[in-house]
Design brief:
Radius of gyration of chain A: 17 Å
Strand order of the largest sheet of chain A: 3-4-2-5-1-6-7
Largest interface: A-B, 37 and 37 residues
Number of helices of chain A: 13
Number of strands of chain A: 7
Helix content of chain A: 40-55%
Order of helices and strands of chain A: EHEHHHEEHHEHEHHEHHHH
Bound molecules: adenosine-5'-triphosphate, magnesium ion
Strand content of chain A: 5-15%
Distance between the termini of chain A: 15 Å
Low-confidence stretches of chain A: none
Oligomer: homodimer
């Protein structure tokens, strides 16, 4: 049964999409079958794995709100062993459409249950907000991976995020209380100045062993890869960016044991 | 009558808050009376100008959804001549609360009309989404300032943003069609690699004279200032970050002529 991991942080630009795409690709390179779910109307993850949004027949909105079967909306990506449930601008209407449904928090959980056994991992990329779309991701996942940029505003927002996760764990999923924190991932560490390292120490003090050993440095190849519709593993396999995401994949697999 | 400028981009982490706070502060330093409106539940702009959220009696939610008068919720910031309508986590419920109101797109426009004449400029910091909260900001403003990070994903999202602005200009504000684009601001340009400059050229080709001459470089002081609850003008007035936001303020004032 595929493990479902949501990549969540309401702070914008902290590396959610970059992590979802490149962790997914690193697991796929190790031979795991991976499904990426793009829940962001910006559809960065969809573009980042080489999908042309104009050629898509269906997207995540058709599955969650329409009545398209999940398996029919899933497409192969430019990465071997990595499929994606793609996003388009249609998802901009998802928040308000979900609000009117019965069991509105569990729509994604229900729709993924029909395909999750075809994959070893399902990784969900979330938009930068804590609304119903992100709540759906938290209710559908076994665990959540929290990217935290090594900057001040990103640190400030963590309490809000933890409160939301606690609400999901206690009120929405009491029967399954099993939403765990997969780990906190420090991202975009700029080793040219001390400020980033102060944030690293703060986060480690707060989250202790929940912080991944792998820290993602600022790396230009990670910025450029998506403009070619490729993961870092395909675009620049020997770069530091590719190496650290392989290390992260190894840590995630080790968590499973 | 105060000019109302909204700082909008649904892409996360592109420098919306950093621009709203530091453009506001640069105008205030020139002696202009400025009101900052923080519409983001993350309340980064509120923290960035030194407000302690725990001591606030009212916030933007109380004004937009409750019946607190706008003037009663406004507080002075750590920056002289700069007041703020602050945000707290209460604003996380704003999107769904607005959805149920009559004239739901014009709530902010109505609430600001009682105070805008007390200021030369009103600057609205928006969350990273194109929902009702951001629509309210677009419907309340004379113009919109669009920060664009010099990176691929930020460029990819511009079409969605322009579509939303066009919808507001034609469908929501037909009588006042006057929502202008104040300008497109290139942010976080890293002069150590060529990739950023390629994005600069793309944006200039697309937006032509709408792109501000001022380009904001990556600058560590801009990252650190908010952790002290200060604008860059107070924290490090001789830094490159402070200088370019003063240049931007001069361009915005020149647009007025
Ligand atoms: N380690 C890194 N080094 C350099 N650039 C990075 C790194 N990780 C991400 N980026 C770049 O930073 C920007 C923000 O990253 P990304 O889009 O993945 O964040 P996000 O959290 O998904 O944003 P959003 O909140 O808009 O969904 C992107 O342009 C991306 O290419
Ligand atoms: N020119 C710059 N140089 C270096 N760092 C910057 C610059 N501008 C902003 N930053 C930093 O980049 C991060 C993102 O900026 P900011 O929070 O202003 O973006 P935003 O668009 O408001 O994000 P959100 O979408 O979450 O609201 C912050 O940590 C900020 O301190
Ligand atoms: Mg993203
Ligand atoms: Mg912001």
């Amino acid at each position: 049964m595929g493990k479902i991991i949501s990549v969540v942080n309401q702070k914008g630009g902290v590396g959610k999409t970059t992590t979802a795409v490149n962790l997914g690709a690193a697991l796929a390179y190790k031979g795991r079958k991976v499904l990426l779910v793009d829940l962001d109307p910006q559809s960065n993850a969809t573009v980042g794995v080489g999908i042309n949004r104009g050629f898509l027949e269906y997207n995540g909105y058709d599955v969650l709100i329409g009545d398209v079967a999940t398996v029919d909306a899933i497409v192969e990506s430019s990465v071997k062993n990595l499929d994606i449930l793609p996003s388009t601008i249609d998802l901009a209407g998802l928040e308000l459409s979900l609000a009117n449904l019965e069991e509105r928090e569990f729509q994604l959980f229900n729709k993924l249950s029909t395909v999750r056994d075809n994959y070893d991992y399902v990784i969900i990329d979330c938009p930068p907000s804590l609304g119903l779309v992100t709540i759906n991701a938290l209710c559908a996942s076994n665990s959540t991976l929290i990217p935290v940029q090594c900057e001040f505003y990103a640190l400030d927002g963590l309490t809000q995020l933890l409160n939301t996760i606690r609400i999901v764990q206690t009120r929405l999923r009491p029967r399954k209380r099993d939403l765990k924190i997969e780990g906190v991932l420090l991202t975009m560490l700029d080793n040219r100045n001390n400020f980033g390292f102060e944030i690293v120490n703060e986060v480690k003090k707060y989250f202790k062993e929940k912080v991944f050993n792998t820290i993602i440095p600022r790396n230009v190849q990670l910025q450029i890869a998506p403009s070619h519709g490729k993961s870092i593993q395909q675009f620049s396999p020997n770069s530091r960016g590719a190496m650290v995401y392989r290390e992260l994949a190894a840590e995630v697999e080790k968590n499973e044991e």
